[in-house]
């Protein structure tokens, strides 16, 4: 007979497959006696019979996939032999599939490639997962991890195998997502469901669909103007999302054929690195900024290019000194210019900018000028105080321009300002009073004195002319005595002077400049006439006609010392010239009389013998001048009848004469005048000292 059993795989040994004794209808007690034994057809022992119970048991764990592979059915064939009587039974055991295997992909990771320009709908086949289980426990379906660009499509082949495919649903952009990572899951139909996964890596192949892009497209760089040649200005940050030749970028300046940019002479560009460096000195004053256009081209086919715009702004360095421009200078300037008078217009400029170009002007504080800002970068130099040409005929004015840079730079310019004279100063004598002396009887035209005046002005304002003023101080106009040279101030006599008439003159001299209006000042020159011995002594007593003698009677017995008479004489001269001395002219006979040298008194010198004959005396009066002048008088002395005679009577009383009275008055007046003149001279000398 043939028995048929089924057993699930993966059961433990000893699992009861079927009741052979019952199914064969054999007593369980007889199984041992009949020597029941199993014979496997494949030579492998998977089962055993429990003779005590007559049950077919598993002898080892069964693995359907190992026994039958992918066969839809899996059966094990056994032969059951019993003796007494000999019987052969065929036993077929179906090994039932259990979902004990999960689906498995041939490779744990699948790598796919797709071009970034592939159209939606493009399919990418995938390898089929394997599941040793059969039937419903085999592969049931596939699942794909969520993706914006890809979806899963499952096709069924003619043999019923399900073929998974990835379908492109949305256009790709390699530059955004160059690689897509997905998870493909294979699910079987068992219970519980088992699954297997594989990593799917999809590489997006590049296409030259992206131009080079500058980041940022417009950039700005600040650079000091004095950087050395070769200084790195910037390195362009250009990206091309493509790869390979499509992403290799070459740089070049973008210029116009008609007007190539000036920056190409100042900057260099590395075609491969994008580094921009200086290749010539930069000057902020020539240009404060440069606009540079750069072309970035890739090596794709067709090539694509991008454009960068770089603005290089130079930072001003204080490398220029201020420049001073004298627009106008009013030289000379009148010394009476009012404060605030514009002297010069000054312009300044500094090619630098900002604080480096902000200029301050300075002049010395001690100068009578100041700077006033007219408007930007223009100044006026004006007077700030009174000017005086006589103190300073001109000024060296140094204008210093200093900028506000760091470090500061300065420039200075010096110009000379001449001060024009104004007739603001009157001529000034060296002394308001001067003293001159001149000998009387000097010839007309004799130089008396030279006055000197000075005028601190210049030119015609200092051209002086002298004149003598007639101020009525003299009885006769002074101009009749003196004249003055109007150019050099030398005073000359007009006529001969007589000391005995005029002993001193006050000559007022005026000096006047040639300015407009003319200014003048005066000085007084005291001209003292020096006496000459031009007057002989004049015997005023006894007064006798010329050629006559004076008779004087004395007592016949006059004693020695007896005053005979007194000779009185005067001299119109003065000083030594008026010092008189009296003496007797020598005679052949000795005379008993003598004359006092200074007083002129004639006295008896020795005892007289009885006078019989008169004595003739010649008395000479001589002055002390050089040469000396003299006068003489003849006196005849005779005895008188009355021996006692009053001397006053013998003198004939000359004081009662009107002429004698006038002479005395003249002497007094002369002495007073001489005293006054002396006092004035002493006062002038003291004041001058």
TrEMBL record:
The chain crosses the membrane at residues 663-687. SUPFAM superfamilies: Cadherin-like (SSF49313). The keyword Transport does not apply. It comes from the Eukaryota. The keyword Calcium applies. GO terms for biological process: homophilic cell adhesion via plasma membrane adhesion molecules. It is a single-pass type I membrane protein. Keywords: Calcium, Cell adhesion, Cell membrane, Glycoprotein, Membrane, Repeat, Signal, Transmembrane, Transmembrane helix. Residues 6-105, 106-214, 215-324, 325-429, 430-539, 546-656 form the Cadherin domain. InterPro entries: Cadherin-like_dom, Cadherin-like_sf, Cadherin_CS, Cadherin_N, Protocadherin/Cadherin-CA. GO terms for cellular component: plasma membrane. It is found in: Cell membrane. GO terms for molecular function: calcium ion binding. Potential calcium-dependent cell-adhesion protein. May be involved in the establishment and maintenance of specific neuronal connections in the brain. This is PCDGM protein. It comes from Drymodes brunneopygia. The gene is Pcdhgc5_2.
